[in-house]
User: What shape does this take?
Amino acid sequence: MSDQMPETLLLTISGNDRPGVTSAMFRTLTRAGVEVLDIEQIVLRRRLILGILVTAPRDWKRLRDAVEATAADLGMHIEVDRGIGDNKVRREGRSHVTVIGAPLRAAAMAAVAGRIADTGANIDRIERMARYPVTAIDLHVSGAHPDRLRAMLSIEAATQGVDIAVQPSSLLRRAMRLIVMDVDSTLIQGEVIELLADHSGHRTEVAAVTESAMRGEIDFEQSLRDRVALLEGVPASALDEVYDALVLAPGARTLVRILRRLGYRFALVSGGFSQITDRLAEDLGIHYARANELEIVDGVLTGRIVGEVVDRAGKASALRYFAEQVGVPVESVVAIGDGANDLDMLEIAGLGIAYNAKALVQQAADTTVNVPYLDAIMYLLGISREEIEALDLEHGVVTPAPPLG
Assistant: This one.
């Protein structure tokens, strides 16, 4: 490169991390009177990489010599690159691409980066959101429409066996304040109606119909009425036994606990039964719940539903109602579900997430999460595992130490 006067200098410092590296470099830069245009710093396994973009002083060679001397005193390596102008302005089509794997293999990241390049987009920044119990990486991408990225990366996600979420980069990602969740096979493991059917001797029959309804093969309302009819004669006390046997999805309590502290509101919208969902809402601190009500007469289930059935359209209607109650637009709602009766609410929400969902739902939703941890959804909201643990620690909740590595 010629010795003509550059407009900017990019300093890239690397080496073993230690206290005082950043402050020492800026003390040297202070003496040169330069302006700071950009800074990026990361630490990987105690290895520091620090990038500083500054305006070039008239005697830029003297500054180069000074920062090289400072780096040598610190035992660090430094490169000084001359250039013209500031960083390029970010192009249109900005997205967050979140990749989640358990494990996340190099081949998967190579494939994701390759597909992003194929669209003509650029990866501007990469952040780690979590390293256990899953690895989650957030890529800041510019230069391609999010819909185009989503279409290409959804194919790669299936091929590589990872979850990939593509969201437009906007302030709405930070402003989502209502989480609307399905219950059966989402918030909890399994289906309540099948557990109740154990008490009537019809579990196998009910399970087959439930599976077909969740795949969207049969009408949900009629299938629900048919299944509930098989519960006729079951004592109402069975509801208590079923509730006591429920198993929450891993990470469910963490998801609710952390996001409530951040001001989020929660709602349960279920094609199941209010006798269960209302108790779940109370126990978990969930603000709203809507579900079907089982008719009970003289302490026994009649095999009928009271009132209108909460079906696919009913779930979407409930989401709109709860958003109105909270005072947010539907674009600021995150909806989470797994079955065909969740499709309408996933579609109208600002972010619709198919959580360990049927194939039909995964194809239709904005994004999918197939790892068995409900709190992984927080990574899609820009919240890292480290931030989750730090907030918990402030409130006296200590999480187990992560594995070494």
The chain has a mean pLDDT of 91. The CA atoms of residues 65 and 157 lie 48 Å apart. The longest strand covers residues 288-297.
